[in-house]
Amino acid sequence: MADVSLAQVQEEAADRIHETFNLAVSGRLLNRSLVKALRASVQEAARARRITKNKQVEVDLLVYILRQCIDNYSGQFDSVYDGFFNATARLAARLPAMILKNLHEDLWVEYKAEVDEVLGQLHSRSKSRNLKFELVKEFNIPH
What we know:
This is DUF3387 domain-containing protein. 70% of the residues lie in helices and 0% in strands. The protein is an all-alpha fold. Helix 4 (83-102) packs antiparallel against helix 5.
């Protein structure tokens, strides 16, 4: 592969993730299409990590994916179909552990505010009480 910078790979992956969600909106079954777009986007983030060998790129892209879901498609969280909410909540539940495991402790604080906001947004929905897994209320950084 040609010499490609870390920022270029991250930007291209973010563009592909954005496009994946844009294509999902055109579908007839919006909730199912968004679940598929979310799954494809997470795979795209993992692909970017494999290319760059940098786990922070993956974490940044996963935060970007959660932002996309909350900023643009949170209306679907109240749908009778809970697949998209569950998939988003599952990603949000995985993210704090991923940050603690894969990133240097100096970087943990940088993600705390954003992750806490996402978790707060998800907990504000009534569906958060019916999840079959635990969704933490905030990103706890060990001392």
